[in-house]
Amino acid sequence: MADRIPLLIDCDTGIDDSLALLYACASEEANLRAVTCVHGNIDARQVAENTRAVLELAGRRDVEVALGRETPLVRPLDVAPETHGPRGIGHAELPPPTRPLSDRFGPDLIVEEARAHPGELTLVTLGPVTNLAVAVLREPSLPRLLRRWVLMGGSY
After folding, report:
1. Cα angle at 10 between 5 and 16, to 5 degrees?
2. How far apart are CA 97 and CA 95, in angstroms?
3. Kindly report the CA angle at 64 between 62 and 69, in degrees rounded to 5?
4. What is the pLDDT of residues 12-65, one digit of tens each?
5. Are 120 and 6 in contact (CB under 8 A)?
C-alpha cells in the first residue's frame, strides 16, 4: 500500500506502549520505520529490550530499534516497578530479543531520518519527550522536517 503513513515511534515500552507497537505493526495504514527508546516507567535499557522483544513477537525484526537518552534532562530518573512490574510490562515474560540494538543514538536517528525524508515522517511520542528535546537541540528545524508529531503524554 503506497499511501501507508511512515512512522517513527519514540517510547518507554511498558504495557501500553507494547500495545501501541503491536497496533502499529498490524495496521495496514502504518509503515513502522524505526523505534527509539527513552527512560520512563522503567530504565531505557529495559525499554530497549522490551521493544525488541515485542517487535520480534510481532514478526518485525526488520524495524530498527535505537537506545536514546537514559535519564531525564532536569530531574532524577524515577521508575515505577511497583505499578508496572519488574520489567515494565506487568508480569509478562517475553523471550529475550535476538536482534541487537541499532548503533545509532535515538535522537540522532530521529534527526537523520527526518533529514533523509523531509516532510514525510510522522513522529509518535508515547513517553517522556526527552529524545525529542535532544533531537530538537541538535536540529532546530526538526519541526519543519517532520510531516506531523503525535503526542501521548503528560504526568501529574
Report:
1. 95
2. 6
3. 160
4. 998 999 999 999 999 999 999 999 999 988 999 999 999 999 999 999 999 999
5. yes
CA distance 26 to 28: 6
What amino acid is encoded at 150 in this protein? Answer: V
CA 149 to chain centre: 13
In whole angstroms, give the CA distance from residue 32 to residue 136.
21
The grid coordinates of residue 91 equal: 508480569
Q: Strand order of the sheet with strand 122-125? A: 64-67, 30-37, 5-11, 122-125, 148-151
Grid cell listed for 148: 506531523
